[in-house]
Amino acid sequence: MKPAVILGFAAVLALTAAASAQISPFLSGNVVKIGVLTDMSGLYADIGGPGSVEAARMAIADFGSTVNGEKIELVSADHQNKPDLGSAIANQWYGIDGVDAIVDVPTSSVALAVQEVAHSRGKVFLISGAAASDLRKV
Q1: pTM confidence score
Q2: CA-CA distance, 37 to 56, in Å (whole number)?
Q3: How many CA atoms lie within 13 A of 12 on its CB side?
Q4: Over pLDDT 90: what percentage of the chain?
Q5: Are strands 66-67 and 101-104 parallel, antiparallel or unpaired?
Q6: What is the CATH number of domain 3-18+30-136?
Q7: Spatial CB neighbours of 19, under 8 Å, sequence gap ≥ 6
Q8: Cβ neighbours of residue 41 under 8 Å, at least 6 residues apart?
Q9: Boundaries of every domain in the chain
């Protein structure tokens, strides 16, 4: 469906399998949580949005819905192309909801904000569509 999202998601699963000690069991109840943070109805919805969420669901199903014996759970949210909202969601997911990795974020301004949150918390963040040159600097 969306090869970049599926490949990115597969990479998250592989990283999680290789580094199972970094899964957040104390936050998420021994569940690997992956968050698709995307634009659900705005300018970038056609290259991410509902299609990215569905692609992630399909990838989880293809992977068997588990990694290292732990259930994989998917959460998703619409950042509405607002960096402050995107970083707030990332903080909520990483800090309270036990999300282990955030994927997608096709909007550069939001991706820059989420990158800062992920870096400060030492979490995984896979970007599939944003293209600002500062996204590679961490």
Answers
A1: 0.78
A2: 11
A3: 32
A4: 58
A5: unpaired
A6: 3.40.50.2300
A7: none
A8: 49, 78
A9: 3-18+30-136
